[in-house]
């Protein structure tokens, strides 16, 4: 397990998305919630539809989900073909599949809109995601602890904070959205950077073994 110390990378990964979220909140041009909401949801709550800025923070988060999923799954393919480290392969595969699921759910509002319409309870989808996440942690904890565990903890912490804000204090105010979706955006950034860097490190280590 690596030493638990905060470095400059952690500050950058947290402060950059935090600054973006704060800028979206204080800008005077449009209501901040229109920038944080999903674009389809934002389009339904504004009379000025449809503008390219609707849901821009949400879209950035979705882009990061998909980039991370693609990176991890490509790393899983490389690690599978080299067959040098099974734990590394499982980490990349589980992380890629979980992140892809989160990306699709976030992009298409699956657990909120699609699932209930086809007879799947929203809570069932959320429990399935939570179960997959727990399986990922149980299967891959050794790789996680040997990597930048502080960055991983930041990712989980901010994503959990976003969930707590949403459940404990539901609101439609601009401040609520910057707290909930701002925390989510920071969490996605931390999650993405952790998994991209870890996947690159594992592939590099595999190359060194086979080279």
UniProtKB/TrEMBL annotation:
The chain crosses the membrane at residues 62-80, 87-104, 124-141, 148-165, 185-203. Keywords: Membrane, Transmembrane, Transmembrane helix. The keyword Transmembrane applies. This is Oxidase.
């Amino acid at each position: 397990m690596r030493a638990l110390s905060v470095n400059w990378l952690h500050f950058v990964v947290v402060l950059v998305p935090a600054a973006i979220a704060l800028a979206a909140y204080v800008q005077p041009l449009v209501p901040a919630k229109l920038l944080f909401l999903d674009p389809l949801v934002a389009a339904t709550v504004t009379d000025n539809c449809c503008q390219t800025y609707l849901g821009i923070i949400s879209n950035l988060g979705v882009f990061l989900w998909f980039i991370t999923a693609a990176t991890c799954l490509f790393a899983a393919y490389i690690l599978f073909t080299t067959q040098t480290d099974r734990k590394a392969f499982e980490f990349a595969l589980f992380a890629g599949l979980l992140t892809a699921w989160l990306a699709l759910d976030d992009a298409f509002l699956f657990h909120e809109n699609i699932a209930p319409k086809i007879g799947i309870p929203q809570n069932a989808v959320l429990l399935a995601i939570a179960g997959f996440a727990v399986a990922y942690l149980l299967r891959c904890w050794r790789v996680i602890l040997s990597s930048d565990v502080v960055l991983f903890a930041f990712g989980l912490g901010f994503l959990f904070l976003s969930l707590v804000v949403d459940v404990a204090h539901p609101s439609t105010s601009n401040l609520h959205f910057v707290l909930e979706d701002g925390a989510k955006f920071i969490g996605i950034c931390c999650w993405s950077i952790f998994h991209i860097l870890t996947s690159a490190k594992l592939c590099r280590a595999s190359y060194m073994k086979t080279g």
